[in-house]
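Lab meeting, action items carried over

1. Structure of the two-component assembly. Owner: GW. Status: complete.
Input record:
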Amino acid sequence: MARSSAQPPESAPVAVVGAGYAGLSAALALHDRGVPALVLEGADRVGGRVHSGRTEHGVVIDHGGQWVGPTQHRLLAWAERFGCETFPTWETGRAVELWHDGAVREFTGSGPDDGPGVAEYHDAVARIDALAAGIDLDAPASCPRAAEWDAETVHSFFRRTVACSEARRRLDLAVQGVWSAEPREISVLHLLFYVASAGGFDQLMDTAGAAQDSRFAAGAQAPALAAAERLGDAVLLGTRVDAVEQRGDGVVVRTSRGPVRAERVVVATPPPATAGIRFEPALPTARQRWVQRSAMGDVAKVHVVYPRPFWRDAGLSGIASLYGADATGVVFDNSPRGAEFGVLAAFVYGDRLRAWSAMSARDRRAEVLGTLARLFGEQARNPLEYLEKIWPTDEWVRGGYAANPAPGSWIAHGAEGWRAPCGRVHWAGSETASAWHGYIDGAISSGERAAREVLAAL
Amino acid sequence: MARSSAQPPESAPVAVVGAGYAGLSAALALHDRGVPALVLEGADRVGGRVHSGRTEHGVVIDHGGQWVGPTQHRLLAWAERFGCETFPTWETGRAVELWHDGAVREFTGSGPDDGPGVAEYHDAVARIDALAAGIDLDAPASCPRAAEWDAETVHSFFRRTVACSEARRRLDLAVQGVWSAEPREISVLHLLFYVASAGGFDQLMDTAGAAQDSRFAAGAQAPALAAAERLGDAVLLGTRVDAVEQRGDGVVVRTSRGPVRAERVVVATPPPATAGIRFEPALPTARQRWVQRSAMGDVAKVHVVYPRPFWRDAGLSGIASLYGADATGVVFDNSPRGAEFGVLAAFVYGDRLRAWSAMSARDRRAEVLGTLARLFGEQARNPLEYLEKIWPTDEWVRGGYAANPAPGSWIAHGAEGWRAPCGRVHWAGSETASAWHGYIDGAISSGERAAREVLAAL
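Predicted assembly:
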C-alpha cells in the first residue's frame, strides 16, 4: 500500500513525479514489464484530479473527474482489469434549460430540438466538426491552417462565424462546460484539437454513448486506488518534488523527504505544477514556454445530497443547463447507482466561479440551493448534505479539468514543447495525450506512452 | 559591494527577491528611509534584464534594456542621482526598410512618409491611441470595453479593423518590436494598456523624444550597479530563493544558502520566475493564475562591432526595419558615444527568433551578417566582433523584454492578481507598473510603490 511517511529509497531505475492517473499508469506499465518505478506524490492520496469520497451519509461522490465513455478504451481496460463496476449516467426524464431571459424550457435527449439558436448551434457544431477532421492528433500545430486557428480566440471565432447571438450563448456554455474556461481563454486550434481528440463535438457534450456515458459505482478513483495497491510501497505519498537534476549518468530527484537517484524520470503533473519544479539544466525554451503558457481551467463541483431523487417524481432527469446569472452552469443527477439517496452535482465555471468563490460559504450555498429550487422545486432548499470542491484552491492540482494552452502556444511551442522528452526526463499527463486529451482515458494512455519511451531508452 | 558567496544573515526587516531594477529600487527606497532590506539574487550580477558589458575591443554594449526617454522620470532621476551620463541615440541619416517583396526604401525621421500601407498604418495607430485614452492605468480591466478587448487577440483585431494587408505588416512588426511577441499572443486590452502606459503608440515606437531617445554612456546597467553599491553588502548574489513561507509573525524565505526571517517580503522577479517559488500558504488563486498566464516575450539582441560606423559615410542612420524572411526585425546604430567603433544592434523576435535560434551558431551569424550586408553593404560581412544574447535561454530571466499576460488574463485575474499584496508579500517588477510598464522606468517606480506599501505596514 502507498506509504505516506517513509523515507524514499536512495535510488530507483525510474522515478515518476505525480500519482494521478498518468503517473500511476506509467509506473504500472513499467511494473508490468518488470521495471520498478518509484512514484513520488506530494499529496496524501493518489488520483490527482480524480478524488472520490463518501459523504456523512455514506454516499459515494466524485469531487473531480467521474465519467467514462464507450470509446475511452484505456480507462475501460483499467475498469475491467481491476474489477471496477460502472453504471449508466442517469438521464431518464426531461432536462431543463433556464434561459438568460428567465424562460424555462424542457426537453428529452441530449439537447433541445427547438428554442432560440438551437438550429444555428447545430450548424456551428457541424462546421467545427468538419474543421476538426483536419487535425493531426499527434501534431496539432502541423495542419495547414494551424497558424490562423491558433491566432484567434474561440470568443472571436464565434463572434465572427456565428451570426446568431442565441446560438453563441449555447456555444459559450458548451465551451465552459467542456474546457472549464471562458471562450476568450482558448484558441480555435486548441478547441478543434480537443474536439478531434474526443472524436467529435457531441462526444464531448453528450451523455449516453459519449464522454458522460457512465459512472463508477465505487467512484472514479477506484481504478487509481487499485493500481496504487498493485504498486504497493513503490508509491510514496506526502513527498513533494522540488528539483530534477540531470547528470551525465542519471537524474537526481530532490524531494521534501530527500534525494532519489534514477536512470529516467517521468513527470506526470499538470503543466502548471511542472513550473514549480526546478530543472537542471533548464528545460529547453519551447518546453518552458509551453508549461508557462498552459493554465488550469477553473471549475468547482458542488454536491447536494437529498433523501431521495425527488425530481424524478416530476419526470425530470436532473440535468439542467443555465444561461443566466446563476453561478451554476450545468447540473447532473449524480445519485448513487441504487438511488438510496438523491444527489445533484452543480458545476460552476470560469467567470461565474470567480464571482461565486468570492462569496461567503453561507452565500455560496444559498446561491446554489436557490438555483436548484428554481429548477426542481422548493424541496431542493433542504438537503441532507452540501459539499463543495473548488478546484483552483486544491493545493496540488490548482484547477481543473485540464490545463489549456494560451492562444498562440500550439503554433509557437507545440511542436517541440508539448511532450518531447528532454534528455532523461519524459512527460505524461492528460495534457500530453492525443486521444481523449484532458480526460482520465488520456491520462492513462499518456502514462503508457511515457513508459514505452522509458523502456526503449533503458 | 554585493556579496556573492556569503551566508545570508538570519533575519532582516525586509527581504527583497531579485536584484533587477525593481528589487534594487524597493531596497533603495527603504534604505533611504532607514529601513534595512536584504536583496536576494539568484544570478551573479544585479540588473536583471539590463546587462551591460564590454566587448574584447572595450566597447560598452547593452545586452538587454538600454534606452531612456524624456518622460521616464524615475530612470532619469536615478541617472541624475548616480551621475550616469546619457547621450542621444544616433538617428542622423536615412533609415532603411526592406519590404517583404524585396523592395528597399529609405526615409528620414521616425518612419516613412509614403510607401505601401503607410497612410493606413497611421490611421490604425490613431485609432489605437484614441482607444488607449480610455484606459485607467491603475485598473486596466475596469474600463467599460475591457472584457471585449481582452477576449480578442491583437492578430484578430488587426485582421478585423485594418483592411490593408500592407498596413498590417507594419503593425505586426511594431508589435513584435515593442512586445517581443507575436500579435496572436497578446490581447487588444494589453496592447491598449501598454500604449496608454507609455503615453501613446509613437512614444513606444520613436527614437528622439520617445522611448528610444537616449542611451547610457557607461551602459544602462550603470545606475543599477550604483544602487547596488549604495546598498553594499545588503545585496546577496548567487542566492536563489526557493520558498516564501508566511507565518503568523513573519515570513521565512528559504534560499539556496539558508533561511532568512523577515517581517515583509518584496518579490521583484518577472512573473514566470515567481512561478518557480513555493509559497506557503499558497498564493490566492487570482495571483497564481496571473503569474501562470504571464509569459516572457521572446527576443534576442545581436551586437556586431566594426572598426567604424561605415554606414554613416553613405548617409545611412543604421536604423532598419525588415518585413521579409530575415531573422532580424529591427536594426539600430548602437555605436558608443564617441563612435570609436561602429556597432549595429539587430533584434530578433518571436517566430523568427524560434527559427533562428534553432540554427547552428555559425549559421545564425551568417544569417545576421548577410542581412546587414544587404542593408549596409558588403563591409558588414567582416566585423571585428559578433555577440549574441538570446534572452529565452538566460538562466534567471528566461525571456524579454517583459512578461505579457495571455488573452483573457486581465479581465479574469487582473483586478486581484496583478499586484495586490498577499499578506506579508508585496509585488514589484516592471510588470506591476502603471507608467512605462515593461520598461526600466516602470521597474523603478514599481519598487518604490512596493516600498511604500511595506513602510505603511511595518
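2. GW to write a short summary for the group page. Key points so far: The mean pLDDT of chain B is 96. The two ends of chain B are 27 Å apart (CA to CA).
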